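Reviewer comment 2.1 asked that we show a complete input and output for one of the modelled complexes. We chose the adenosine-5'-diphosphate case, as it is the one discussed in the main text.
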Amino acid sequence: MTAIRIENLTRTFGAVRAVDDISLDIRHGELFTLLGPSGCGKTTLLRMIAGFVDVESGSICFDGRRIDALPAHRRDTGMVFQNYAIFPNHTVAENVAYGLKARKIPAAEIVSRVDKALERVRLAGYGPRSPHQLSGGQLQRVAIARALVIEPAVLLFDEPLSNLDAQLRTEMRVEVRQLQQALGLTAIYVTHDQEEALAISDRIAVLRHGTIEQVDTPERIYRMPQTAFVAEFLGSTNMVPGIAGAFDGHNTPVAAAGTEFTVRGEVAAPGTPVLLSVRPEALQLRDGSGGSLVHARLALREFLGPVQRLHATLPDGTPIRISALGGQALDLLPGAPLTLAYDPAQITAYPAP
Ligand SMILES: Nc1ncnc2c1ncn2[C@@H]1O[C@H](COP(=O)(O)OP(=O)(O)O)[C@@H](O)[C@H]1O
Ligand SMILES: [Mg+2]
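Response of the prediction step:
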């Protein structure tokens, strides 16, 4: 297991600051995800750690040892690429053996290590096959075996599942997570898929324009996003503009959408424009009164099986999405008044842009 420390890492391409002064501490045995939209610098950062992109300034240490000037093959990392990077004219076993041959491992040892790596990814016996005979999911497992076979201290994944269909992707991410935990390896996982990041990570760094917006556990990133960008990027949310009122020692009232929301804590100086993030599941349908409530009117109900998505409008007409359990409110018709209860701690407020 290996802890990774990244300090003030920067890489520019012409006028683009692809990685802009990033510092991160990644713990032993952690699956750490770099999450962000296309072009935010995820691949550049990962490739700097792997040794495929030169560091312009800053440093990378594995267990306190500086590695950023070492060639890629001496960094003790295994990388799994988005497009698999499988050689089509070689057998599965030859593909997996690639890194071992490059390291001049004796032939007999190569055979046994390749077998073991294929077994780990549930492809025992596939060694003699041609890659053409394999499905997309199997090819990706070959790519993982090829990264594992060198017994790296750190596994690096660059959007490894994005070429697979949706169902296989959700199955494979579980396999990746189980394998990483079983081997106890430190892993850095790049994705632009927020659900994938939430599902498999110990911690997530959300990147934007080459910088870090927030580093936290999936739960905290989702429930306590520190910026409006993180709130919108992770899951769906309603962004409602408003004006902060006076903090009463516990909560701040925010006038928004023709009504008032109560937000836990001190939000901003009274009179300041803010943006509220209201998760669709933070609002609960209620009959009675009590607690923090807002009123809305139903516009459209989507029945999705386990849940329903209610499209409603707040008093001034601002649209708001609410998720309710599948069996709730099935008799509600468009135009019906809704009373929505919420916990002020579930609403987050940001400075208006
Ligand atoms: N080799 C390169 N030459 C020029 N620009 C690059 C190069 N690699 C990446 N970039 C630019 O750096 C930025 C970050 O790219 P990248 O790290 O691939 O982002 P991501 O993986 O998050 O989509 C983008 O603006 C991209 O165009
Ligand atoms: Mg990328």
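The chain is about 25% helix and 35% strand. We note this here for comparison with the apo prediction described in Section 3.2.
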